[in-house]
Design goal:
The chain is of the alpha/beta class. It has a single domain (16-377), classed as Alpha-Beta Barrel (TIM Barrel). Helix content is 44%, strand content 17%. The protein contains 16 helices and 12 strands. The strands form 3 sheets. An 8-stranded parallel sheet has the order 3-4-5-6-7-8-11-12, sandwiched between helices. Strands 1-2 form a two-stranded antiparallel sheet. α7 links the parallel β5 (156-164) and β6 (185-191).
């Protein structure tokens, strides 16, 4: 395969590909955290109303603070910024508002299907039960969907409930997800600090979900390497990998001449590629957290294109829109500018995401048709 000639430019405000605005194209978002997708203005307003100390004098400065603090090159440091967003998400009213705005923002970005992940166990300090918290988020999602429909944009969003891998409540969260499987919850996730907290420590929850044939995605291959991915697949029976970028460690370069490079896939990488286990890649976030540090510190160093060319089921995601000051449109524009992708490439990436969504087959097929029709219209 040939190595692309990288461009070093930022996407324009109205990013486009082959003359088509990327924002207008139908998109699918699989990896986007609720507590990382708040509007800076909402965080500022809610925190001020609750008397929570803020590190900025206004919402604009607060947005800059999140971006600066998140660009630390470490997942552990990156996660510290969530203390503030989670602190304003401790009531049903606030959870509903945040979820509603989350859906509205996705719809404004051209997303037609999204999966929002969040950890209910982190939102109980105001007296909510786990069930109350999930219902509050579901209420907000449905309000956002209705508002988008009224504005002529159809969008549907499902919840992925995350258990914190450094905690002990994963069996409880797994049962919670199963209780709401017909009421908005489409999947389960393990989130939080990855290194040192393998999926195997949550075997009870993961076995229960497997017995109930409930979809699982696990953060793996971000702050930890191949052992973490291996555990997610074997212990967690994960259908997707949260980030999974470090699967590139299982590639062996066997020849390189000029712009041509040949690589060999070892067993784990072969399994992930051949089984079409989706990689929930998040280019900007992967730079911020240091997930691609062994390959470099710039977007052109990201192994995204290598994995794409090798046939992995790569998808594009935002991870945390507030911390990365990004949108799905911006992430796609970064890839267009860096790897010279065209409309056909962006369509493939969206079809990968649609085919990997935690939806019944018939609904995935409908989603695929909507994407194909949208890209045909341009």
């Amino acid at each position: 395969m040939s190595r692309p000639q990288h461009k070093r430019q930022s996407p324009r405000r109205e990013a486009s590909v082959e003359g088509v605005p990327i924002r207008s194209l139908p998109k699918v978002s699989l990896h986007d955290h609720l507590d990382g997708g708040l509007r800076a203005s909402t965080v500022f307003e809610l925190a001020s109303a609750q008397g929570i100390s803020l590190p900025a004098a206004n919402s604009r400065e607060l947005g800059e603070w999140f971006a600066e603090r998140s660009n630390a090159g470490s997942l552990v440091e990156y996660l510290k910024t969530f203390d503030l967003t989670v602190s304003v998400m401790q009531s049903a009213e606030n959870l509903t508002r945040v979820a509603r705005e989350y859906v509205e923002d996705l719809a404004n970005d051209g997303v037609i299907y999204g999966e929002v992940r969040w950890a209910p166990e982190q939102h109980l300090e105001g007296g909510l039960s786990l069930e109350d918290a999930v219902q509050a988020v579901q209420d907000g999602i449905e309000e956002g969907e209705d508002a988008a429909d009224a504005n002529g944009h159809s969008i549907r969003v499902g919840q992925i409930l995350s258990a914190m891998r450094q905690g002990s409540r994963s069996p409880e969260i797994a049962r919670l997800a199963l209780d709401f499987r017909d009421d908005g919850v489409v999947g389960f996730d393990l989130a939080g600090p990855e290194d040192g907290f393998p999926a195997s420590e949550h075997q009870e929850a993961l076995d229960l979900l497997a017995q109930e044939f409930f979809p699982v995605t696990i953060h793996a291959g971000e702050a930890a390497g191949l052992d973490s991915i291996n555990s997610a697949l074997l212990d967690g029976r994960a259908l997707r990998l949260g980030h999974g970028v470090r699967i590139a460690e299982d590639l062996e370069e066997i020849a390189a001449e000029g712009d041509e490079v040949r690589v060999r896939l070892r067993d784990l990488a072969t399994w992930v590629r051949d089984r079409e286990i989706a990689l929930e890649l998040s280019p900007s976030s992967n730079l911020q957290t240091g997930a691609i540090a062994q390959w470099g510190t710039k977007i052109e160093d990201h192994p995204f294109d290598l994995l794409y060319q090798l046939g992995f089921c790569v998808t594009v995601n935002t991870d945390n829109r507030l911390m990365s000051r990004t949108t799905l449109t911006r992430e796609l524009a970064l890839l267009v500018d860096t790897f010279e992708y065209g409309l056909e490439d962006l369509e493939t990436l969206q079809l990968n995401a649609a085919g990997s969504a935690f939806l019944p087959l018939e609904q995935r097929e409908e989603l695929i048709e909507l994407i194909q029709e949208g890209f045909e219209r341009g």
